[in-house]
Amino acid sequence: MQSGKHILLIPTAVLACIMCxxxxxxxxxxxxxxxxxxxxxxAEHGYKVTMQIFQPTGGGADTAVDSTKPNITxxxxxxxxxGEAISAARSSTGKELFFxxxxxxxxxxxxxxxxxxxxxAFALGDKNISPAAELCMAENTASELMEIRLSEEEISSEAxxxxxxxxxEYTETVSCDLITLLTSDGHAAMPMLTALSEEKQNSSEQxxxxxxxxxxxxxxxxxxxTGSSDVLDRQQATAAAMxxxxxxxxxxxxxxxxxxxxxxxxxxxxxxxxxxxxGRLLLTNRITLTARPDRQLDSRESDALAQAIxxxxxxxxxxxxxxxxxRGEDIFGISQxxxxxxxxxxxxxxxxxxxxxxxxxxxxxxxxxxx
Amino acid sequence: xxxxxxxxxxxxxxxxxxxxxxAVLTFFxxxxxxxxxxxxxxxLSTAVQGLLIFPVVRLVKKTNxxxxxxxxxxxxxxxxxxxxxxxxxxxxxxxxxxxxxxxxTDYFFSVNMPRALTVACCLLTALYAARLDSxxxxxxxxxxxxxxxxxxxxxxxxxxxxxxxxxxxxxxxxVGKAIFxxxxxxxxxxxxxxxxxxxxxxxxxDAAVTARRFLIAKxxxxxxxxxxxxxxxxxxxxxxxxxVFTLAATSENLxxxxxxxxxxxxxxxxxxxxxxxxxxxxxxxIRRLFPKATHFASVMSAGILPAAAALPLLLIYKWxxxxxxxxxxxxIIVLTFILPLILxxxxxxxxxxxxxxxxxxxx
Lengths: 371, 363
What we know:
The complex is a heterodimer. The relative contact order of chain A is 0.09. In chain A, α10 crosses α11 (299-326). In chain A, 35% of the residues lie in helices and 32% in strands. Chain A is an alpha/beta fold. Chain B has a single domain (7-332), classed as Amino acid/polyamine transporter I. Chain B has a two-stranded antiparallel ribbon with strand order 1-2. In chain B, a hairpin with a 3-residue loop joins β1 (252-253) and β2. Chain A binds chain B through residues 2, 5-6, 9, 12-13, 16, 19-20, 23-27, 98, 100, 117, 124, 127-128, 130-132, 179, 182-183, 333, 336-337, 339-341, 343, 346-347, and chain B through 107-108, 110, 112-114, 117, 120-121, 124, 127-128, 131, 162, 164-173, 175, 232-236, 239-242, 245-246, 249-250, 252, 258, 296.
């Protein structure tokens, strides 16, 4: 009798499983739209959202990606908030949108980032969106970047993501993700992309159809600073990436005597400290890097190269950081450093943090090891 | 009771840790103002909890019984009152646990499953485990803690390059108040202390040593989780509804890509172990109050009551107001400190008498 009661649990569990599958509101894969990238622009009554939705190849193909055709569809919708625009896109595409594969969020130049929590509420409220999704800014509108349909090798969002990743790795820009933006104190650096268009003559077969084809590609325009109209050039971006601790590799040309030496920089690391000296905050950046010159140098030339690279980055870092902090633009996380080291000082100046940042003296040491 | 059916000290520690870790994995208290202040608060509250459970440890050492049996030695009406108090606590905590599992499963997964079925699945699994002996539940708890530690290590390794120690700051207006609130919130979520009071007399090891080891392990794991979340997510951890889940979603590796699936595995496992544990304890209380109740009936009623209470709130989407409300520390203080202290102070004339065998066997 006792074991009979116990065994009741087994059919009950089986029944529960059946109920789970039959009463469930499961969605088949063909009704899902896998969103890989989102572009956000301002619209007349809120926001315009442009989404790249993965389009798998038809049946019979070897792989899910057909490299000979554009493999994305683009959905465009508008709403008072980004969340509302995304909801509108659901009904316009007729698909249940899935954001688990979202790799990139592209922001139009005119989108205000004054309140990033409000703008990205859709991402924070959606458990599928990774906070590590990469961010970039469009030189003009995000929609023109999202509408580029690459048809070679990989899907568009992966290509965009690859451009950003490698540019960040080689310090041509400062990479940015959702966490970096949301934890920043009002300012963050992020890559700025632009869509290039060039008309070229089509092959004879295609001429019959359209005459010309617009071949579009993407180019890194610079590094945008949120909450500012400034765009950092490549040199500034390298210095910013080093100061932010995001630099990995770089390339630099130095003049040693009468000849130029191209060095690849590796193992870049940054350490910073902040102290209070004579009532003034003194920020010290210590950057260490290894330079590998493209030619054999003797010890004297190696020292000269190390000094040249050190002097160059010391000047660039000091200049950039002093300029930006004087404007209250803290992309380096100095506010957080002050909060960590001098919480009382920060609280005392909580209403006037720009002045506090502007008063920070900057000193940079660059230690170069020539390999 | 022979030694074989007794809980090992390590198993009890894991059972208690499962209960506490489930709470911290689910969500952080709303009162969290600063990650660093929370860590200090947790360390303080852990020290205070050492004092809180001191009477239980003394009681176990002196009488070699749990509070229920100790009260039985004084009077049968006191025993009923004490048992009812423990039962109510376990049922309420099971109610919160079942509701949280259904509510947050709905949140974590791309759920296309009605909440009622989530409740049914969790309940059936927990009921199955709750019917087993406590050493078996203890072994499940050990497994859940190993899984949780592996998950935390994987998440930490995957987000190592995002760790920034400058995110530990105390730049908040009222530091003392924030630390006090954090300590209160931590103690309010330490239902495991009541489970310790219930089980302390039924382990192989010394209760004082078990308590000390548990508090050290609890303090270390909870502080590590808070530290990891703060160092990686910074201020975002205070603004995201489920910080540990967000951390797991951020953490990346080449094999599993994101770590949220690992997180879900550890979360579900610790949640089920906690629920099974609570239902097991509640069933023991029911059998003490109603000696004629069978093992099966007591476990079933211990599970069905809280599930039936949670279901309407889940179905009308009112659960958030319950789960996000501040929890009172009064029941925990009463059951782990005041009650054992009273029992300790009272002249337990038959303290040396052997404990009630029927109850000991059921534990």
